[in-house]
């Protein structure tokens, strides 16, 4: 599989709480590839947390940084990349992923997502008065875009080994 990947990365997309970071880490380990979390890269590049970037500079500034960080990560060769939930919505990023990677949508039921993101302190998009509705609205808006990923894998509650194996057979 890693030989077939060549220089392409495996890029996990999907909503907050779908498990991109935790499953991505496992997948990378299983395949002997490096792992990188795009949100963490953005925080390092900006020298502040994502919540602070949103608060001080606003979402458009964050999105621009996200687009640049994604370009750099995708150009850096084969790895497993966990993206922030909004990264795949950007057309330029999607085109670059199509050239440099294989996209995997980690799909999850709304209830599963909500249970995972209830403790939402570090997720500025969920800081409003009714975060559960916000999450469901995002889900409805974004599902048609996530559905354009090369592969879709369901993220269930519980151990993620099965999800990782499903990803591998989907990519092969
Ligand atoms: C966002 C998701 C977050 C983070 C930012 C915006 C989104 O990443 O990039 O808060 O637009 O869905 P996770 O999906 O890793 O929580």
Automatic annotation (TrEMBL):
<feature type="binding site">
    <location>
        <begin position="17"/>
        <end position="22"/>
    </location>
    <ligand>
        <name>ATP</name>
    </ligand>
</feature>
<comment type="similarity">
    <text>Belongs to the shikimate kinase family.</text>
</comment>
<comment type="function">
    <text>Catalyzes the specific phosphorylation of the 3-hydroxyl group of shikimic acid using ATP as a cosubstrate.</text>
</comment>
<feature type="binding site">
    <location>
        <position position="123"/>
    </location>
    <ligand>
        <name>ATP</name>
    </ligand>
</feature>
<feature type="binding site">
    <location>
        <position position="21"/>
    </location>
    <ligand>
        <name>Mg(2+)</name>
    </ligand>
</feature>
<feature type="binding site">
    <location>
        <position position="142"/>
    </location>
    <ligand>
        <name>substrate</name>
    </ligand>
</feature>
<feature type="binding site">
    <location>
        <position position="63"/>
    </location>
    <ligand>
        <name>substrate</name>
    </ligand>
</feature>
<comment type="similarity">
    <text>Belongs to the sugar phosphate cyclases superfamily. Dehydroquinate synthase family.</text>
</comment>
<feature type="binding site">
    <location>
        <position position="39"/>
    </location>
    <ligand>
        <name>substrate</name>
    </ligand>
</feature>
<comment type="function">
    <text>Catalyzes the conversion of 3-deoxy-D-arabino-heptulosonate 7-phosphate (DAHP) to dehydroquinate (DHQ).</text>
</comment>
<protein>
    <recommendedName>
        <fullName>Multifunctional fusion protein</fullName>
    </recommendedName>
</protein>
<feature type="binding site">
    <location>
        <position position="85"/>
    </location>
    <ligand>
        <name>substrate</name>
    </ligand>
</feature>
<comment type="subunit">
    <text>Monomer.</text>
</comment>
């Amino acid at each position: 599989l890693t030989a077939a990947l060549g220089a392409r990365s495996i890029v996990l997309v999907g909503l907050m709480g779908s498990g991109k970071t935790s499953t991505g880490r496992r997948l990378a380990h299983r395949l002997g590839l490096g792992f990188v979390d795009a949100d963490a890269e953005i925080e390092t590049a900006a020298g502040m947390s994502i919540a602070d970037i949103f608060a001080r500079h606003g979402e458009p500034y964050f999105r621009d940084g996200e687009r640049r960080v994604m370009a750099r990560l995708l150009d850096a060769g084969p790895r497993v990349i966990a993206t922030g939930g909004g990264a795949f919505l950007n057309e330029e990023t999607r085109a670059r992923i199509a050239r440099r990677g294989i996209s995997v949508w980690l799909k999850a039921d709304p209830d599963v997502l909500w249970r995972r993101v209830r403790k939402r302190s570090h997720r500025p998009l969920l800081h409003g008065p009714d975060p559960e509705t916000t999450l469901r609205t995002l889900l409805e808006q974004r599902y048609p875009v996530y559905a354009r990923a090369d592969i879709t894998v369901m993220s269930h509650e519980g151990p993620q080994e099965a999800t990782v194996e499903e990803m591998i057979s989907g990519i092969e």
